[in-house]
Automatic annotation (TrEMBL):
Domain AMP-dependent synthetase/ligase: 15-423
SUPFAM superfamilies for this protein: Acetyl-CoA synthetase-like (SSF56801)
Protein name: Long-chain fatty acid--CoA ligase
Reactions it catalyzes: a long-chain fatty acid + ATP + CoA = a long-chain fatty acyl-CoA + AMP + diphosphate
Highest taxon of the lineage: Bacteria
UniProt keyword list: ATP-binding, Ligase, Nucleotide-binding
InterPro entries: AMP-bd_C_sf (IPR045851), AMP-binding_CS (IPR020845), AMP-dep_synth/lig_dom (IPR000873), ANL_N_sf (IPR042099)
Length: 598
């Protein structure tokens, strides 16, 4: 069982507890070539102690800031803990950050140390070591360190004999900074969110009380550790639960890792659930008609079963029997294809999920529990749970440590033990961001229903106001369009305009299967497939079907089909796979303007 969290504890107490009580349990695994390597909790403790001494030997002192820029690899996970245990304050920088963003965070944080993945990444950091505007003194490189370029070798630090630096963990105080997490900066410069040991431990305890999982459950760490969600789920919560963390350093290999681990819990942002659903739909579409009919019948039973749970009603015995039967015969074999056959806790956050995707997973017997929060709420503020009740489409009820209120203009406000202390200024001081009564304005627009479930409508700043004065949620419009399987990504546009238009990107998994079923052969040429008249005619029908369900102001009058899929690497999505609306608007300004021309 997790250790009892005391008000005078810090994160260091959790590692110490695990090393003493669960020394031989697996703690951290990662792929090494074709095989997997694993450290137990006692081995993690020893590795962190050596690294702590190594970083201390570079002059890293309590209160010093340190920056990490790596993928989800063991060196990242262990370095973060080592820095925390010597009283330093680590911050992970997104791997997709542009050089100017890296420079801003380096200057703003006052970090003396940076630990980066390889020599190629180090190239963006080297000029900062001689920049008078930064305090950067040491650049540690994990792979391919070049002393001639001023690099320090990570392997040498990791082999440092244990000394007295690890003992600093006993000097940590609950109100010390655990980390500073920088927001993604989509609407301006990134802001440094102060996270203390006290508030994070309160968040972990509140979240853990709502999650009914097997002891020492496996977790796949694949989202960026710069994001608060993976930081909580992939680093801090496993320390509380003595979980087994599996590192996936390449999101393209996520399904491969899922199949290997078959975890009892899985968190995915909406785009991940959409991609997994598209892959399964494509597989179902390729089955003989009789098998497809059998799966559809099984999904109808699972949908009925989920609806019963959602209403909080006891499942009738005959429905329970039918669900058990179809799950074993039809649904489990499907879920095995993506490694989700043992999942008992499926969750999502970051942005509203299309209801069609939610219903698809419910039809497989995997109700995806939506949660909501921000970096400023230390990740989770509200959550749906199978045990405490859920409403698919809502983001659940507040944690015990937080209050939620909706202001007169619809903005969601938060107050409580797990709301952050404030933003860190360039000088290191923490600037409160709550009002006189302790409420934090989240920037999200939502509503609370009669049962206390929160429903998020959109970001306040992203609400479209048409030239006719109508307020429109772009997320609602985009998710309605995405209910057609052929539609992969959508950007709705229309602020200050007389009507809405949209950019539509077809789904790369579904479109080829859809085309093959209709005898359309473009020889694997994606651009030709996107330009095919039948594909475009079907997308026209998809827009028309969505418009039939939307109000007049929300309807998309014209759209443009694009061939290029959006992603973090190309800049249209954040690292957590949300639309960067400003980037898309600027990049496709000509195409959007053309949609308003006669």
């Amino acid at each position: 069982m997790p250790p009892a969290v005391s008000p005078d504890h810090t994160l260091a107490h959790l590692l110490e507890h695990n090393a003493a009580v669960h020394p031989d349990l697996p703690a951290l695994s990662w792929r090494s070539g074709a095989d997997w390597e694993t450290l137990t909790w006692s081995e993690v403790n020893a590795a962190v102690a050596r690294l702590a001494q190594g970083y201390a030997s570079l002059g890293v002192a309590p209160g010093d800031r340190a920056l990490l820029m790596m993928g989800d690899r063991p060196e990242h996970w262990l370095s973060d803990l080592a820095l925390v245990h010597i009283g330093a304050v680590p911050t992970t920088v997104y791997g997709t950050a542009a050089p100017e963003q890296i420079a801003y965070i380096a200057r703003h944080s006052g970090a003396r140390l940076a630990v980066v993945e390889d020599a190629a990444v180090a190239a963006a950091w080297e000029p900062l070591a001689t920049d008078p505007g930064t305090a950067l003194e040491s650049l540690v490189v994990v792979s391919g360190a070049d002393p001639g370029r001023g690099h320090l070798d990570y392997a040498a630090l990791a082999a440092t004999p244990e000394g007295d630096a690890f003992g600093r963990r006993h000097d940590l105080k609950p109100d010390d900074l655990l980390t500073v997490v920088y927001t993604s900066g989509t609407t301006g410069d990134p802001k440094g969110v102060a996270v203390t040991h006290r508030r994070m431990l309160a968040n972990l305890a509140a979240l853990d009380s709502l999650i009914d999982l097997p002891e020492h459950a496996a977790h796949i760490c694949y989202l960026p550790l710069a994001h608060i969600a993976e930081r909580v789920l992939g680093l801090y919560l496993p320390l509380l639960r003595a979980s087994h963390v599996w590192m996936c350093d390449d999101p393209a290999r996520l399904v491969e890792v899922l199949r290997h681990v078959r975890p009892p819990q899985f968190f995915g942002v909406p785009r991940v659930w959409e991609k997994l659903a598209s892959a399964l739909r494509a597989g179902i579409a390729g089955l003989p008609e009789e098998q497809r009919a059998g799966i559809e019948a099984a999904m109808a039973v699972a949908t009925e079963h989920t609806a019963c749970l959602e209403r909080g009603e006891p499942v009738p015995p005959d429905l329970a029997e039918r669900f058990a039967a179809v799950r074993g015969l039809a649904l489990t074999p499907l879920l095995e294809k993506v490694g989700l056959d043992r999942v008992v806790w499926a969750s999502s956050a970051s942005a509203p999920m299309p209801q069609e995707v939610v219903r698809f997973w419910a039809g497989l017997g995997v109700p995806v529990m939506d949660a909501w929060g921000l970096t400023e709420s230390l990740g989770v503020a509200t959550v749906n749970t199978p045990t405490a009740g859920f409403r698919l489409g809502s983001v659940g009820r507040p944690l015990a440590t937080v209050e939620v209120r909706v202001a007169d203009d619809g903005e969601v406000l938060l107050r409580g033990e797990t709301v952050f202390d404030g933003y860190v200024d360039a000088g290191g001081a923490v600037r409160p961001a709550t009002d006189a009564d302790g409420w934090f304005a989240t920037g999200d627009v939502g509503r609370l229903d009669g049962d206390g479930h929160l429903w998020i409508i959109d970001r306040k700043k992203e609400i479209i106001v048409t030239s006719g004065g109508k307020n429109v949620s772009p997320a609602l419009v985009e998710n309605t369009l995405k209910e057609h399987p052929l539609v992969g990504q959508v950007y709705a546009h229309g602020d200050g305009r007389p009507y809405l238009v949209a950019l539509v990107v077809p789904d790369r998994e579904v479109a080829p299967v859809w085309a093959a079923a209709r005898g359309i052969d473009t020889g694997g040429d994606w651009d030709a497939l996107v330009a095919h008249p039948e594909v475009n005619a079907e997308l026209e029908r998809a827009v028309a079907a969505a418009n039939a369900r939307l109000s007049r102001a929300e309807q998309v009058k014209r759209h443009r089909v694009l061939a290029g899929e959006w992603g973090p690497d190309t800049g249209e999505l954040t690292p957590s796979l949300k639309l960067r609306r400003r980037v898309i608007r600027d990049r496709y300004a000509e195409e959007l303007d053309a949609l308003y021309r006669d």
